[in-house]
Amino acid sequence: MSGPSVNSFFLGNSSGVNFSIIISPIDEETGKLQLANCSGSKRADDWNLNVTPGTTTSKVTISLSRNLQLCLPNASDCCTTPLCVVETLQVLACCDSVVLAHLLIQAEIYANSSFTGNVSENATIISNQVFQPLGSCPCDLTAGACDVRCCCDPECTPDLKQLFNESCFTGVFGGDVNPPFDQLCSSQSMEYTPDWFPFLCVQSSLNNTPFLGYFYHGSTSTPKAPLFKISLQTSPGKLFTGYRQGDPIMTEENEYFTVPQQSMAGQCVRSAPVGYLQNFDVTCLTDLASYKEGLPHDVRINSGTGDLIQQNVIYRTIADKGKFITESESLHTAEVLCHNVTFAEHYTLIWKDKNIEQINVTVFLGTLCNGEILTQRFTVKFLNLKSTNATELFGNPGYQVGKPVRAANMNASDTFGSLNIWQPAGRGLCTSAAYTPVLFGLDSFSGCTLEVDINEDCSFLRGNVTEKLNSLIQATHVGKRDNARYNNLSDWVEIIRLDPFNSDTNVSNGNFKGICPDIPANLNIRIIFADLGAVQGIPQQEILAVQISYSTVIWQFQCGLTCENSVSFLPITASVQFIQVPAQPPVPMTRFQMNYTEFDCNRNDVCWPQLLYPLTRFYTGEPYSQCLAKGLLLAFLIVLAAMMSNPWFSEVW
């Protein structure tokens, strides 16, 4: 025990049990503790005993009631030495004078080092750092000792200074904390001083030096609560003008409508605002101790015109928790604490133009116990009122970042396709992994593990892995734009597939048991896109080409310490990379730009060809007629100034 209080627990029913504390001295002859009896009380000298009873467990608290401050002169009731308390305690639990349990405590408590006395009148006065340096000897780093080469150190005797007198620190660090600055007239040097220095130098004392004043005394302001709350216009004439893409959705209380989302660092932000027309599908890890409920579902949403919309909530129960519970710790207690929590929330927002027409919420509930880690899922999807199904078309023709990439299977009767990556759950096996769509503009990397037997046939393994990877790409074409129509083949680009390298040699037989080369374990999806204009100031992006390739690895059975296990794991991955290219090929460089790079405006800060840029057609800051008029006026003034500066003009005038 090193603090003024300590807690312990008595297991069992504490009714009829008497708790007592005694100070157990050590027998000087034998060196052993004296035997304790049940005649003690809940107080012994400065020690107090407090018991908080419970049904199966009682909390026992032992606390020290004395002062732990170091003694000041002429003071009492304090600690005379730094090691203030050194005692041996015994806590007894007795029933009918029979000792049921005892606890031995060795207390070694040091005095509190914080100062609580009165401040002496002889306090050190610290000078204002704005007008006078705070430290007169910055190189004095060691208290009570001489710092080598620090000639301003008061602890350095003249004999010690003779050892390094020729190598003392110079400048501010060596004690010259207020040096003359270069603009001072008295610091004029004959070697580097220009001729005009006496006319522009400063006559000032060293107390007014530019080396001082480098201290910012700005006021701090505390953020207003709540964090996500803004003031909206409350005029009866015009409550709200509607949402634009990316605007945060507001609630009835003029606060942000929030749903948990992932930050740029990958962490889960519980109070992240939902942006208009921005779909997302995220997962968040939590346990029972850190679980927090989100925004209540009875909160009404601002539709965009000032009207309030009530959420339509449907509650369902999770039957299979295997896809949500990713880890379960072994608990040793008989009773496990469990609560009914939210496993998933799916929001569907029906929109039209700049307004929200309807909000449908599906909440999945389940039981989360102490020691389990839950993978919560939150999805937000915007559907147009004209087409409230999975194939709805957004108003913007091009793709927007974060929207799913549209895919189609033109070889099937049902042309609807999918372009997905894995979303592992549980142990991360491919058999239990779910799918999540590829989102436009977001590079992603996912994978899962495949169980492989030591006697696995290599050809069968290659086929199994290829089948797993191909299950992600259930499409032959990808939509060029977000509003691509299935009945128009020109709205789609065909997926270019590069088949994996297949080896005809079965290397799993003979001496090569447990080794298989050329396993296509990595699926690479490359999507090339470009900006093709803007609609209402929002850039519109179009997919130009999609390529799918495979990377092969050599799989080898991992034994570990022994090879008793006949099952190993093979990780297979899928990566998505978005590559942006110019909408049109760049203009090739001319021979002049190659040879005379100093005149290239893209390579130099000074661009001589753009000296008269405001007079050219490339300048769009003002109308061309105004630029031309101002340019002619400027040219007239320059010619007039040149004429007036000539001697013959003064003679004529």
TrEMBL record:
InterPro entries: TCTN1-3 (IPR040354), TCTN1-3_dom (IPR011677), TCTN1-3_N (IPR057724)
Transmembrane spans: none
GO biological process: cilium assembly; protein localization to ciliary transition zone; smoothened signaling pathway
GO cellular component: MKS complex
Keywords: Cilium biogenesis/degradation, Glycoprotein, Signal
Residue span(s) of domain Tectonic-1-3 N-terminal: 112-221
Signal is among the record's keywords: yes
Tectonic-1-3 domain mapped to chain residues: 241-384, 398-581
Family according to the record: Belongs to the tectonic family.
Designated name of the protein: TECT2 protein
Organism expressing this protein natively: Zapornia atra
